[in-house]
């Protein structure tokens, strides 16, 4: 097979609203594919271009202009044939039309490469530093998998003296591992495991450490059930998980007739003399006759909420707990137990889902707080230190250097979620990140043919399976309709950024890796840009289908696609809550 290469000048055309720019026109290049590896004459290589950080110059000032969008063949290709060139030329022109059309008033970067060999296929503004928003989660999740492994599970245990005749004489310790997914239901399971051991009584306290999140429920939410009373009387309210650290003051009244609740909630947290947090919740307003409502009280008192939820669950399982809740370090608890002759043993254990499954939640549904929390805890557990965002970012940079061969100085990340307007990554770098995380970067030697399958890597497999599948699930469930290839990808959305990066294939013998990022200076129309991105990716799918047909039979499996592209940011399944997530800042 002879090599084919198409080089084209791809212009961006300014919109009527774009700010005028006094700048010399710059030519951008759209590279067409090399269908099969073959000797190519020495090509002119463009000199390195100085990157202009987003913080230094606005998008409008960085949009490139050319006098002509005419596509030209490269003079240095050996063995050119007109027939294959037509396909690449048509694909390039269609992508160019989208860049000049719906994407004209923004700065868009595109880079497409062969997943196994890294051979570039198409590129537009591929070296421009852009903000890919939640595409940063591709880095944090890959880092977390490398640090802990795909099969890692966060353990939460109940420790205490060996029971004697069904009685635990002394305190029991609720020992967690920073599990970001721990819930009150999990604590109920722990209590059930204690009861199954035949334990009927704990004559001491429920003890937790001083770390606010190691032993607690990270997303600590206490459901408060409010029920209407008699006409004119106050409604009643109580916690559904036995939160004894919450006291409720009711100033609300019950209406004489049914109506929608018009209730107000105000919570104040104080500390007791022994340091126990006490939450006072005041409920005002009006509750309709016969009505009921559940208020989700969010709190940072994570360990107290967990301890009281465990105590209530134990009592509900028939295990009497005589004591209260107290704070003590694990070393002190163990030391005192040994001195008293009651060496602590594991009384019950709960394990989270596999890290691979948690990573899938992060990437498929782009949950910001969970992304930050996973990389925080993975770094802390691997390095045996307290969670720190600085340490987590350092771990992400280290992963990039080792696996994607990207140096720290070449990009900017400051979160694990991408919930930042400071991020700067090029689409070329994003493609390298996808190839590295998916196990393609070092899977095929340069001398090998692209039909050799990559080495099976459990971390790469878990990472690939964590990506959203176009037309099927996650944030891509309504995207890239009528795709002729299977697409696994990660989306990204901020008010001024839309991104999609991932892997597409018809046959595993020749997958492509792509990254497409659009940035603007002002809030963009998300549905409009997403539809344009879907059309670009659609053109790449058509190209892949046409070229794949020449080398192997396409898969008969097609990806079902339904529905319209989302009309707003669908990057999270739950709203971002600053009260519960001190590590992440800002909002989408």
Keyword list:
single chain; 588 residues; alpha/beta; 6-stranded antiparallel sheet; 5-stranded mixed sheet; 11 helices; 24 strands; 27% helix; disordered N terminus; disordered C terminus
Per-chain topology:
Elements: E1 6-9, E2 29-31, E3 71-73, H1 82-100, E4 107-114, E5 120-124, H2 137-148, E6 155-160, E7 167-168, E8 172-175, H3 184-196, E9 201-202, E10 206-208, E11 221-227, E12 236-239, E13 246-250, E14 253-254, E15 262-271, E16 277-287, E17 292-298, H4 302-316, E18 320-321, E19 325-327, H5 330-339, E20 345-351, H6 355-365, H7 368-383, H8 389-404, H9 427-437, H10 458-466, E21 468-469, E22 486-494, E23 497-505, E24 512-519, H11 526-551
Helix pairs in contact: 1-11, 2-6, 2-7, 2-8, 2-10, 3-4, 6-7, 6-10, 7-8
Task: Kindly summarize this structure in a few lines.
With 588 residues, the chain is an alpha/beta fold. The chain contains 11 helices and 24 strands.
Explain what you see:
With 588 residues, this protein is α/β, with parallel strands linked by helices. The protein is 27% helix and 21% strand. A hairpin with a 2-residue loop joins β22 and β23 (497-505). The two termini are 49 Å apart. Residues 1-49, 64-85, 444-455 and 549-588 have low confidence and may be disordered.
